[in-house]
Amino acid sequence: MPIPQSFLKLLWETLEDPVLLTDSSLQVINTNPAARNFLGASVIGSSLSELFGKVPFWVELVGLLERGGQKEGEISIGDRDFLCRAVTLKKGGMNEGLLLLLREITELRRMTKKLELTERWRNILYTILDTAYEGIVVVDENGYITMFNQAYADFLGVRPEEMIGKHVQEVIENTRMHIVIKTGKPEFRQVQRIKGHNMICDRIPIWEGDKIIGAVGKVLFRDISEVDELAEQVRRLKKELEYYKGQLRRHYQQARYSLEDIIGQSRVIRELKEMVNKVASTSSTVLLKGESGTGKELFAHAIHNASPRYRGPFIKVNCAAIPENLLESELFGYEEGAFTGAKKGGKPGKFELANGGTIFLDEIGDMPLNMQAKLLRVLQEKEIEHVGGNRPVKIDVRVIAATNRDLEALIREGRFRSDLFYRLNVVTFEIPPLRQRKEDIPLLVEHFLDKLGRTLGCGRKKITPAALEVLLQHNWPGNVRELENVLERALNVVDGPEILPHHLPPYLTETRTFNSRPLRPLKETLARVEKELLEEALRYTKGNCLLAAHLLGLSKSTFYEKVARYGLRESAFREYGN
Ligand SMILES: Nc1ncnc2c1ncn2[C@@H]1O[C@H](COP(=O)(O)OP(=O)(O)OP(=O)(O)O)[C@@H](O)[C@H]1O
Questions:
Q1: Ligand 1 centre from 297 Cα, in Å?
Q2: N or C: which terminus of the chain carries fewer CB neighbours within 10 A?
Q3: Residues 548 and 559 sit within 8 Å (Cβ to Cβ)
Q4: Is the keyword Plastid in the record (predicted)?
């Protein structure tokens, strides 16, 4: 029996899901009241691409219109999501438009996401529980077990899944979990005897608003005797720590680098290395100048190691890192009772620790003016005075100072004493920035690949000529330190045997690409981009000009005109067929 018209009309009027009818140009020509309520009366006459955006589903609708049949897909309108079923409407064997039935799935999607999130957290929680060292048990408001972790199960010799659903008193001896659920009072660090062991337990009620919904029990240590064992272990480790601290102190009081560790074949580096040999035999004060990361500290070590003092200590002081009020006592030491907090018996300063060796005063340009005066006196008198003391102590120390500041400019600004500058400036090493000795880069790269390969344990990697070229093009404001960091980063991302340009930090390659992009007249560039887009659309639609025109938002005639202008049509059809 045919369905009466009145029934269809009623269905159309009362259906809660929006329904849209379009013509062959995908323009909305009619809707049911639900669609108008949701999208507004102005929806009639608007095109689907305006409503949906040119999402993949819209593209499929264009195809559907040509082929006929039906399709289902997901679309978003505003912040709402819909499942959309599209059916071709036929008239006289021709596809004259589409009928679109929308079903809102926003809430469904939200719930699905929420469920996925809950599931993920549940997995995380279970993993944490099962990898915890402590035994953990969770009970519900009636004392029935809802969670039981692996550690607890191992201790009791049971299987966690078999414990779920049992009453806690059935499973754990001397438990008070069922009491904690009633009192609501947490119990911490309680001793509980289980399987002949004295365990330390926490029992914590779980509240939901003002209602107790369960409790968590934690067994902190498997047995108190373990606490004693741990305490013994801590005592032993402390002793070891003291021993290694001493070793470390001795290590840092020695210069670690010598001349062979200074890599570079540039003329200036060769000359500086020769100079190291010359000045090493004397005790003259040396001033090392150069930007940060150029290798000043390396040279300081090398000078000390090449000198007759090489068996003596090498003490480094970073003048910028020590707070101003501590610098004097750090450098010259203090007597007992010199100030509140002073150590019993006093403390020797860095100059005394460096006796018979070298003191390396790094960042000397940052030394406060009053300390500069005191340092000048030490350099002249070759003796120091403890803070809080009044008898001078003779010292035999070679001073090497370093700075990345322009000391002459600081003198002009009244921030550095000129008399100290002349005292320090006996022998000066000017270490040039890396950008002025780029010929050293390949050797440095090889050196760092060797060194880092060993320390990172990733083996010896190679560098491709293209990646080396990127390094040679860079300006290296951070000098050798920056180069070393860049290579370390590259070794952390490289997975094959060779470092390629894309393993280097993007800031090195990006500037190069930007700088090297050729500038062409705008018209020429726009035409090239337009041609590329037409080709891309034809390729995507496998030569379907109508669809390609739709995709680019062009009328058929404009599209054909452009295709002809760029001589594309024939080649596109030949290559991909229609
Ligand atoms: N010629 C070189 N050969 C090998 N390694 C070098 C060279 N120059 C510098 N380095 C390395 O670069 C890093 C920075 O060097 P160093 O600390 O000596 O620089 P610096 O000039 O003292 O820096 P800052 O002024 O910031 O203290 C170190 O790891 C050092 O070993």
A1: 6
A2: N
A3: yes
A4: no
In the reported structure, the alpha carbon of residue 293 is separated from the centroid of ligand 1 by a whole-number distance in angstroms of: 5
**Pocket flag, ligand 1, residue 482 (CB < 6 Å):** no
CB of 292 closer than 6 A to ligand 1?
Answer: yes
Q: How far is the CA of 484 from the centre of ligand 1 (A)?
A: 9
Is 455 a pocket residue for ligand 1 (Cβ < 6 Å)?
Answer: no
Give the fold, CATH level 3, of 117-221.
Beta-Lactamase (3.30.450)
CB–CB of 181/141 below 8 Å? yes
Successive 10-residue mean pLDDT values, the chain, 578 residues: 85 91 92 90 87 78 87 86 91 87 90 90 85 89 94 90 94 94 92 86 92 91 67 82 70 78 95 94 94 95 94 91 84 84 82 94 93 92 90 93 94 95 94 95 96 90 94 93 95 92 85 50 80 81 80 84 77 47
Question: Is 259's C-beta closer than 6 angstroms to any atom of ligand 1?
Answer: no
Sequence spans of domains, the chain: 5-104, 117-221, 259-430, 434-516, 522-576
Q: Phi and psi at residue 199, in whole multiples of 5°?
A: -105, 155
**Beta carbon of 404 within 6 Å of any ligand 1 atom:** yes
The residues pairing with 31 across neighbouring beta strands, listed in sequence order, are 20
> Ligand 1 test: best mutation among 286, 298, 319, most atoms within 8 Å of CB?
298
Q: Is the CB of 263 under 6 A from ligand 1?
A: yes
CB 358 within 8 A of CB 312: yes
Q: What type of residue is 467?
A: A
Q: Is the CB of 443 under 6 A from ligand 1?
A: no
251: left (phi over 0), alpha (psi -120 to 50) or beta: alpha
Question: Does the beta carbon of 365 sit less than 6 angstroms from any atom of ligand 1?
Answer: no
190 CB within 6 A, ligand 1: no
Specify the residue with its C-alpha closest to ligand 1, atom 16: 295
Q: What pLDDT is stored for residue 57 in this prediction?
A: 81
- Mutational pocket test of ligand 1: of 259, 361, 481, 487, the residue with most ligand atoms within 8 Å of the beta carbon: 481
Helix (H) or strand (E) holding 8: helix 5-14
Give me ligand 1 centre to Cα 404, in Å. 12
- What Rg do the C-alpha atoms of the chain give, in angstroms? 40
User: DSSP state, 94?
Assistant: E
CATH of domain 5-104: 3.30.450.20
Position in ligand 1 atom list of the atom nearest CA 431: 21
Q: Give pLDDT, residue 222.
A: 54
CA 322 to the chain's CA centroid? 30
pTM equals 0.52
Specify the CATH number for 259-430; select among 3.40.980.10, 3.60.150.10, 2.60.40.2250, 3.40.50.300.
3.40.50.300
Phi-psi region of 420 (alpha: psi -120 to 50; beta: other; left: phi over 0): alpha
Instruction: Specify whether the backbone of 78 is left (phi greater than 0), alpha (psi in -120 to 50) or beta.
Output: left
Please report, in angstroms and rounded to a whole number, the separation of the first and last CA atoms in the chain: 44
Which CATH number, 1.10.8.60, 1.10.240.10, 3.40.50.620, 1.20.120.420, labels domain 434-516?
A: 1.10.8.60
